[in-house]
């Protein structure tokens, strides 16, 4: 999504969130579960990647993570104490279907049955994500997402999960951030499986789209009519550095391969012509997209998940001379932007998180309104939003994180402004419920509202968790971050 303007985000006056608004938090299986060899689970691509020297900071792995597999009841009690009305979690594909083929492992399903029952017992609505990047290693060995068969295998897995949990779970998300799966996993290689082939990245994007559509069909066949389907996209809120036509062209190219490669076929039934032209030298789209694929991919969904952290500022290479730049997602010599490798990325001015990401809530307002205008009538959820900061435990055992409180206040106000302007936003999911394995950053970055002592695995709600709990209790924001 591109924009040339930004908005100043002000706190809403009173409660600007619709009735029934979902107040949630989100996690992902590999980042929190641990127990990687229990209950029949086999390795995923992230197990392999994290155990490969040099791929993850400090050699960290998700082998134990925060041991949610054994501590989920404690974690659900924490959610209830915070007043969460909804919890977005992901299912581990290799825990349910270890090789990505064949019948489900009941022990794997039993873990999720118990988790969902615990959530329901505490009045918390479960939102299940089928895929948050943990492809069974067996399927990667057979070609991974660049192979068309993986999309069919994903639909089979979706059917198994829906048949087992469809009586308990009413909202199903197919994929989380397929852009990262395709372009960081197979393009720049900074995420699992660590491959660096721009053509494979584009093939992976198409097969992720196809897998999504096939999974929606499988879900619809197995779930009650009241169930809702969704996908969560990390749409890039793209801003050209200047109004120079060359910078606007750079923004167009990144919008094509960063956003419309997914929204085009999923919401519009076709890949955008400019994307096809930009990448024609890399893949033969006529043979990649087979007859029937567009209709399969564009099966209607009930909700669109939006993940947002920071805007994306770009320029032409010529206009970037002598200006500070960054690489646009991950330190790698290979680009995650096939067809736009020469576009320059810039950090917006202002305060930044511990990830180095500029803090700009106006980008979230812009993004939600852009989607609302492009796809009127499609309800949205903010399925991820949050920030990492250098949190520390004080002498009294408390964790004060005023920067995160300020970040959350600003971004919740941004959601409220979008709602006031007409965007149909149904819920907000804080990333993340608790500190966890932050992918290639290992345990070096803390996004959680709940602090984890990685030595003892003790859980300590941070000041931001208590602040969020009070916002939930009120059903709206105070005028300033101070309650």
The H-level CATH homologous superfamily, spelled out, is Glycosidases
Number of distinct beta strands: 13
- What is the multimeric organization of the chains shown? single chain
Q: What strand order characterises the main sheet?
A: 1-2-3-4-5-7-10-11
Rg of Cα set: 21 Å
| Portion in strands | 5-15%
Number of separate domains: 1
CATH fold group = TIM Barrel
Q: Which whole number gives the mean pLDDT?
A: 95
What is the N-to-C order of secondary-structure elements (H for helix, E for strand)? EHHHEHHEHHEHHEEHHHHEEEHEHEEEH
What does it look like?
The chain has 483 residues and is of the alpha/beta class. It has one domain (22-474): Glycosidases (TIM Barrel, Alpha-Beta Barrel), CATH 3.20.20. Helices cover 39% and strands 13% of the residues. It contains 16 helices and 13 strands. Strands 1-2-3-4-5-7-10-11 form an eight-stranded parallel β-barrel, surrounded by four helices. A three-stranded mixed sheet has the order 6-8-9, with helices on one face. Strands 12-13 form a two-stranded antiparallel ribbon. Helix 15 (402-420) links the parallel strand 10 (380-385) and strand 11 (425-431). The longest helix has 25 residues, at 198-222. The model is unreliable at 4-14 (pLDDT under 50). One of its GO terms (cellular component) is cytosol.
